[in-house]
Write the structure tokens for this entry.
Amino acid sequence: MKDKLEELRQMRANAKLGGGPQRIAEQHAKGKLTARERLDALLDSGTFQELGRLATHNISDFGMADKKYPGDGVVTGFGKIDGRRVAIYAQDFTVLGGSFSEVQSHKVCKIMERAQESGIPVIGLLDSGGARIQEGVRSLAAYGELFVRNVMASGIVPQISVQMGPCAGGSVYSPALTDFIVMVRGTSFMFITGPDVIRAVTGEQVDFETLGGAVAHSIRSGVAHFAADDERHAFRLVKELLSYLPQNNSEDPPRVTPYDDPARRDEILDRLIPGDSSEPYDMRQVISSVFDRASFLEIHAYYARNALVGFTRLDGYPVGVVANQPLHLAGCLDIDSADKIARFVRFCDAFNLPVITFVDCPGYLPGIAQEHGGVIRHGAKVIYAYCEATTPKISVVVRKAMGGAYIAMSSKQMRTDLAYAWPTAEIAVMGPEGAINILYREEIKKAADPAAERQWLLKEYTDKFHNPYSAADMGQIDEVIEPSYTRLRLVMALEILRSKVASNPPKKHGLMPV
């Protein structure tokens, strides 16, 4: 028995070494932690329960017979983060470049299935050169098995991918199927085809970082939700993100002990909106003033910056917030911001997070590029997401709410539970200039003083339509509120809506305009 125990201990010790001391040293030289060091840094001490530590591949050709490593390049199991259970796997780049194999797929799929059955989040720490070429179609089938698990778990348990190294070819689709992607600046990249292939096929010259680094994907493509400065920063982001999320779709998000007065008033809101409706202001000031102090975790902070989305807290309860950002493109909706908003609203709805929307949108961004790029189809995603969502929904029209953008941005017609407006709200089919050009073109031409006539008509139209009161009169706005009382009104509203029960008609699924 003593010999058997010693043999087991030796096998476990070998597994901890991954690809060996030299490979570990090379990993450290790149500024990267090993798979097990990453697990130690992210998980609560002493909580990791490993599964599949001794699994190895069974490929005997292509020089693989003597390249068997315990665990086969991925560490899988269960642990806790801030006392809450998670399923987790960490690819080990020191073992065959972390290449994805049939054995890796079996190990990862097994913990994902247990996570879905147990209702706990799944976290992937990704660092892999892609499919294991020596396994041929078996490694491709392995990805297919993983993709199925990603899709089946979607909307049931939160899925977070932390990209800590390379990710190329078909391997990019597993993180793309998860809810959130965190990338690390300088050491992680994602792309379908690498710089060499692009150079050969199109003649374009590009390096790894420019093509698929954290900056490219958090600013231009929107693939990454967060860009971390280093690995430990990435782990802090994961912990903060999880603190807003329920364990699964049947639980409520976790409340923290309230630390901010629910009736707190911030009178800066009463004078925040400029007198000139074309003058910008920072919507983040509204968010920071209304919600619990220092609780806003912005998602996609550098992508489609004309819209803001993120998690925050209200009297300790997590909520999702959506807002137009007048500092960028005047807060117009466009292709990218529509995708950003729709995805976020659907996530909140899947995991029981109330959605609070702050509206200041003059409409959809005009232009040939937008029309030919499919702004109609992309813009419809916002409408679909809000209409489909059964989670509590509250909107606050801060300033402009024009035309189709008014309808799309959580209007009463989108099944929004409560719609508020500030006195500065301008709710109309279009801006006054465009309106009078259509309605009074002939009258202006025939007037003795066209300029004076135009100004008079502008004022009349603005006074009559560019305010929240006609909308309130028709019941499209539930209440016009003082800006500094917004926090209290939202706290009181959510207290009522927290027990909301709503459902959609039974069907296999709808057809979102993807």
